Amino acid sequence: MTILIENLTLDSIIGILESERVTPQKVIIDCIINYHYTENTFINYAQISEHIQNSIQKNEFFLIEEALQSLGISLKKEFSSITTLSLTLRKPDILSNCTVGVQENFIF
After folding, report:
1. Residue 72 sits in a domain of what CATH number?
2. Residue 26 domain-assigned?
């Protein structure tokens, strides 16, 4: 089974620039989760969304790469039935002419 979470938007302290360390900025997260579904075993996508938001907002990361790696590890720890995970984190407002971001694929 695959869970899709697209355009999860939140404000967070993330980045290395001085202004990024004081003022929360908008980040957008996309998540694709594969797991083994059975009738009584499923992953609640609302809990996944909440976990992502809490993880990114409580940790004030310097690099978006560190944020993604930390998030991948914490999602697998919290939701052990995840088999593969793709995460994308974008910062749409940091550069005036584009959106920047990183993506990582995890295989557990």
Report:
1. 3.30.1130.10
2. yes
d(CA 108, CA 72): 10
d(CA 107, CA 86): 9
Q: What is the mean pLDDT of the chain?
A: 96
| CA–CA gap between residue 20 and residue 13 (Å, rounded) | 6
Task: Check residue 38 and give its pLDDT.
Answer: 87
Closest CA to 53 of 101, 4, 99, 7: 7
pTM: 0.92
Structure tokens that stand for 105 in this block: 């694929």
CA distance 33 to 3: 5
The total number of structural domains that make up the chain? 1
